[in-house]
Every structure is written in C-alpha cells, then in structure tokens.
Design a protein that fits this description.
- This protein is of the alpha/beta class.
- The chain contains eight helices and nine strands.
- The protein folds into two domains: 4-125, 3-Layer(aba) Sandwich (Rossmann fold); 140-214, no CATH class.
- Helix content is 35%, strand content 18%.
- The strands form three sheets. Strands 3-2-1-4-5 form a five-stranded parallel sheet, sandwiched between helices.
C-alpha cells in the first residue's frame, strides 16, 4: 500500500501553463495517484498589476485554473518566496516530491539548486523545445497555433496574387515588430524570428487591413493535442 507521500505529488507550474501534453504532469501521474498543481508568484503585483506581463499572467492563470477544473482538479495559488511556499504546501498535503519543468535560464537554475537543498525536486525535460536555441521559447503547439492562424488569413479576392503577411508585436518596447511574408521558406523564418524574441508576442494582424487578433503569449500555452488529465483536488 502506498504511503501518503507516494500517493501525492506537487506540480510546480512555472511559465508553461499547458494542461494537455505537458511532460511534467505526464511524468508525475505515472508515479502518483494525486498531483497538486501549484502556482507561486514571488511578487503580488503579478496578481494585481496592470502592465502587459501581469495582465498576461492573470489571464493565463485564470484559463489554467478553469482548464484544471474541467477535470475535477484544483490549483493552489500562492504569493511569497517560492521555496518556502512549496515547503509549506508539501507539509500540508503530505507530499514528498515536487515536479517542475527543467529550467534553462541562470536565475531559475539557481532557484532550483536552492530548492533541492530543502526538498526533493525533479526537473523534467521538455522534448518539444529541443529544436529551439532560445531558453524561454514556446513549445511546439504554440508555434503551430500562430503559424496556422497566419495561414488561415484569407487574401483579398481582388488581388489573388498578393502576398499575405503576419505581424508580431513584441511586449518588449525596445523590440521591433516582425513581419513575415508568405514565401516557401516562411515557416523556418517565422520559427527563427519567433524564438529570437523569446516568444514575447501578443497579436498578429493582416498587414493590409491592420486587423488585430489578440492571441496567446508564452505565458498561456493552451494548445491541446488530446490526452487525459487526472488532477485531483486536495
């Protein structure tokens, strides 16, 4: 018979809010009956701020919570020092292990090293990032979302030979928008430039009509490729 610690595990949700096809939840579910999703923000402004990144985080978190609820689960949301918050949650849920996506940037790696000195932390590699040179790039599903949306933009019947283009606007004020023309090598160009900006893109538009369509960002990758999720409430 499994002990409470073996039955329950923590899914530390960082940056990647995917529910389907998430390598972290897939691994955790193989070893535990209950997986508790936990989101920890070290600054309360993430929940209350009105700047672009805070708004994206708030929208992404709301969608993530709603998605988990569809499967009968719940999400623990905390504000505070991540390591201390996770340690408290481990104790309150009688869990002994934390699963999270393997970090790529130095700041996150240092955070994981400190966390490992306090409790058992298992970083999970995301194979969908293997082709990207950018540490904070989006998984494959999100890139496909943007590309398919771009491909679906119709050309005007009055000018069937016109080239359609997609314009990405970066959240970083010092970065320029990226316009990609519909050429044979456009997929690789779009992928290269998309990851070059770390996926900080919020809208695309038809260049001719300037029709903006709000879409997801790197903080809200809700692209589903199917697959069950069995997150259970604490």
């Amino acid at each position: 018979m499994r002990t409470p610690a073996e039955r329950s595990a923590i899914w530390w949700v960082r940056r990647d809010f995917r529910v389907h096809d998430n390598p972290v939840i897939t691994r955790a579910q193989k070893n535990h009956l209950t997986v508790v999703p936990v989101v920890v923000a070290d600054d309360t402004s993430w929940f209350t701020g009105n700047d672009p990144r805070s708004r994206i985080f708030q929208e992404s978190l709301a969608r993530f919570i709603e998605e988990v609820r569809k499967y009968g689960g719940s999400v623990l949301v905390r504000a505070g020092e991540p390591i201390q918050e996770l340690a408290d949650i481990l104790a309150s849920t009688q869990s002994s292990v934390v699963y999270s996506l393997r970090p790529d940037d130095d700041k996150s790696k240092n955070l994981f090293r400190r966390a490992k000195s306090k409790f058992q932390l298992l970083p999970i590699k995301d194979e969908s990032r293997r082709y990207s040179k950018c540490p904070d790039s989006l998984p494959t599903g999100n890139f496909r979302y943007f590309f398919n949306a771009w491909q679906s933009i119709p050309l005007g019947e009055s000018n069937p030979d016109a080239t359609k283009s997609i314009v990405f606007r970066s959240l970083q004020p010092d970065k320029k928008s990226i316009a990609i023309a519909n050429k044979p090598d456009s997929l690789s160009i779009l992928k290269r430039d998309f990851f070059a900006t770390r996926g900080l893109l919020t809208t695309y538009s038809l260049e001719k009509d300037r029709v903006d369509i709000t879409t997801t960002s790197r903080l809200s990758p809700f692209i589903s490729n199917g697959g069950p999720l069995s997150v259970r409430p604490v």
